[in-house]
Amino acid sequence: MNTLSYGLLALLSANSLSGYELTQNIKPLWRAGHSQIYPLLMSMEQQGYITFKLIEQTDKPDKKEYSITKAGLEQLRQWVETTAEPPVLRDELHFKLYSLWLSNPKEAKDLLLKRAEFCKSELERYKVLLKANEVLRDERGETRELKATTFGRYLLIHKRVLDMESSIQFCEWALEELESNQ
Fold it and tell me: CA 109, 126, 152 angle in degrees (round to 5)?
């Protein structure tokens, strides 16, 4: 089992999902495509961590809806309680900033403006996700507590909100630095 496998189990611990839905739902959390996800689903099904139900569709090909098993929940629980590895930091912008001295002022400014626009867009998306999580929490009659199925998602989405706010602040600061040094 790799980290992506555990990520898929985590998503399935909240809801049964199709492979396509898993691919879409994992995007904000982890970079992975169909070619990685589907073999893992097959492997986890063979190991007894997930099961699937075939859903017949008239207008599209039939789809599999995956669910986590008790063995999968136990495997996920054990993994959740182990220490997380240090975060992997892979952001192309970091290398571009390191070599920014090669850029002309307009392109340097555009680089930061585009990142700020992206972060603002993501910030709005995460705020929508926070609201949707609150609705789900209310529907399930949960509160903000460790045992609530929506609590971890709440923490994660809030972390992403803070990350985006921090990135926006950085871009604004860096743009001021560029302006003051021209």
Answer: 130
Q: DSSP per residue over 21-90, as a string?
A: HHHHHHTTT----HHHHHHHHHHHHHTTSEEEEEE--SSS--EEEEEE-HHHHHHHHHHHTSPPPPPP--
163, pLDDT greater than 80: yes
Compute how many other C-beta atoms are within 10 angstroms of the C-beta atom of residue 2.
Answer: 9
Strand order in the sheet with 17-18: 17-18, 63-68, 50-55
pLDDT tens sequence across 27-57? 878 888 889 999 999 999 999 999 999 999 8
Instruction: Return phi, psi of residue 158, to 5°.
Output: -65, -40
Handedness of CA 121, 123, 129, 135 (dihedral sign): negative
Bridge-based pairing of strands 50-55 and 63-68 is antiparallel
3-state secondary structure at position 16: coil
Helices (H), 81-181: 92-98, 105-139, 151-180
8/37 Cα distance (integer angstroms): 8
- Identify whether the C-beta of residue 9 lies closer than 8 Å to the C-beta of residue 72: yes
DSSP conformation class of 100: G
Encoded tokens for 181: 């040094």
Query: For the whole prediction, is pTM greater than 0.90?
Result: no
